[in-house]
Design brief:
Blueprint lengths: L1 E8 L2 E9 L5 H4 L10 H20 L5 E6 L13 H13 L2 E3 L15 E6 L4 E7 L2 E2 L2 E2 L5 E6 L1
Parallel strand pairs: 2-3
Antiparallel strand pairs: 1-2, 3-5, 4-5, 6-9, 7-8
């Protein structure tokens, strides 16, 4: 449930690690992603640990790693669709990796909720601009998720 790419822009390189973390209804929607005897929280914890391990390995290549994707969990604000336990695990993982969710306070497509589609990177990295892309075109809702972007130095 992950992919990585090395990106070069303006003479600098970063590794973009794109992922999905299991959601609360994963057992019903995608039962093949859940191991025997595991509930959705167990799947979230297992996959999160594997992704953290991947990031540690990717960092050994020498380039900064940016972790992006559908985390299916907000890091702040109202906690609809996730859980306090998942949020705590995710925030602990980000802290252990010395990363922050650059768009963690951005609005989700659902009202009163912060983004679960996160762009995370090194705390010391400078974000010069960021934005949100509305999930509607000409009044038609294209997704239940918004889009997000950041410019970094």
């Amino acid at each position: 449930m992950a992919v990585a790419a090395r990106v070069r822009a303006n003479g600098a390189q970063i590794i973009v690690y794109g992922t999905v973390l299991p959601w609360t209804a994963v057992k019903r929607h995608a039962p093949d992603l859940v191991e025997a005897g595991e509930d959705s929280f167990g799947a979230f914890k297992r996959v999160l640990q594997a992704q953290v391990s991947d990031i540690v390995t990717l960092r050994k290549l020498g380039d900064p790693v940016v972790w992006v994707g559908d985390f299916n969990q907000s890091v702040e604000g109202a906690n609809f669709g996730g859980s306090s336990e998942r949020r705590d695990l995710l925030n602990e993982a980000l802290k252990a990796l010395n990363m922050v969710a650059w768009n963690g306070s951005a609005a989700h497509a659902q009202p009163d909720m912060c983004s679960i589609d996160l762009i995370c990177g090194p705390k010391q990295q400078t974000v010069t601009a960021s934005g949100r892309i509305e999930p509607t075109v000409d009044g038609v809702t294209m997704s239940d998720h918004a889009g997000y972007w950041v410019d970094i130095l």
